[in-house]
Amino acid sequence: MNQALHRAAPGSAWEVAHPDGRHAIAVGLTEPISVRISGPVGYFAAGMNEQATVEIAGNAGVGVAENMMSGRVHVTGSASQSAGATAHGGLLVIDGDAAARCGISMKGVDIVVGGNVGHMSAFMAQAGALVVCGNAGDGLGDSIYEAHIYVQGNVGALGADCVEKQMRPEHLEELAGLLAAAGRSERPDQFRRYGSARQLYNFHVDNAFAY
Amino acid sequence: MCGIAGLHFRNPSLYPRLGELLGSMLQKAAGRGNDSAGVGLYADPGTIPPGQSTICLLLAGATAGDESTSPAARAATAATAARAVESADPGLGAITAAAFGQTLVLTAQASGSVLAAAARVALPHAKIISQGQALTVLKGVGEPTALAQEWRLADRGGWQGVAHTRMATESAVTPGGSHPFSVGPDQCLVHNGSFSNHEAIRKSLITQGVRFDSLNDTEVGARFVAGRLAEGASMAQALTDLTRTFDGFYTLLVSSATAFAVVRDAIACKPAIIAETPDLVAVASEYRYLTDLPGIETARLFEPDPEVVYVWERSSPTSPLASTLGTSRSGN
Asked: Which of A81, A140, A200 to mutate to test the interface with B (most CBs of B within 10 A)?
């Protein structure tokens, strides 16, 4: 089935029926096609996605949209741990909750979660934005670099070197765009912004002499 | 990597289907481990006649997939073992014996502890893998689907069951090292992950007089929980204490004659998903194990949060009791 999707003509639309939680569905797509998966999926669904639009009508297992490069992945249910891990681009929308390590090591993807995210989300996040309409678990944004985090609800605890930051007009604009792209109705001014305090070792110019 | 599956029925009309549904889950769980497997069944009428007690044994020399051992030879071995246990304690009365692959099941009117005491005398090299009035443990080395056929799992019933497929990391691939571990009456524990401080806890328990059957890390967890339950702790308290004592990675499914419980470590990298319907509670390492369960399309599906102990009590089967712990902080 993945081979058929890999050979699909750009612009074509596909439906995957009865996924029954199987792993690695719609992985490695490279063309602008649309795939609707009608039911819960297992691990790594829509991983490494490029250009394609994938909708999962149900829950997703570990690592949905892992290492996505571009395109759009939409989970109508909840996602397990490591959603959007290491992803470089595109938009990942999760209508329900995302478990631990959502957006871990994200490198440019935008992630919008309608519910809560688990602990250690956006760990070592390097670029992109994580929007959480619910609450965030402990260790949010631990060792973060340049990614933007927006949370409407409570944060269990901020991770190392992650701090609350002022919401400036450009951030409200970015957040409004992401919420609209995800089809959500939350108000940007109800969110708080978090990011890197830039106090860890790598951020100190004094340590440049180590090289 | 190991696979975990469990079923706790709220609707008695499902009791006859326990083995069939647990077998479906076990077969899919083989993808996470296929060197050995085991099940724990609560009140299976085929192995525990009402009012009787059962002990389950692994005889010395029980080995994997031993095709030279015919069902007739295993039945003869079982009968010989039963006569030996009868001779060890004439007060026991008649003992019935049946072989389920590498597991031997002995049943008698006496209590499980009396039966087990006689078995220890008569069969000093056998390993007792369960004893009680509710629980039957069947386990062994081999491909899980083949083992399920040896256990005639599809014919087994009961109101609750747990299953495990193993990919060994912390101890040898032997029948005794396979899960479930049952070290207290009608208690069962299966584990996906590995404990990192189990040797220190083992030594501490040994100084308290606890005896071990294996070098397996999971057995240490099972002995710890059994000890706390024996001291009068609730299942929720025993598992809360476990999270404060054990280090490492774990998703645990723990059952007793009254409880069905799940707990994960603080990092929670070992998977688990729970499905709840008015008729059942199911636990699995992966969603795909659940797809044959009745009502799964409309079940409430969720992943257990780290260091939260989830307990479903049989006395109040419609109101699960979830006791919440404070989440622990990482050091940095």
From this structure: A81
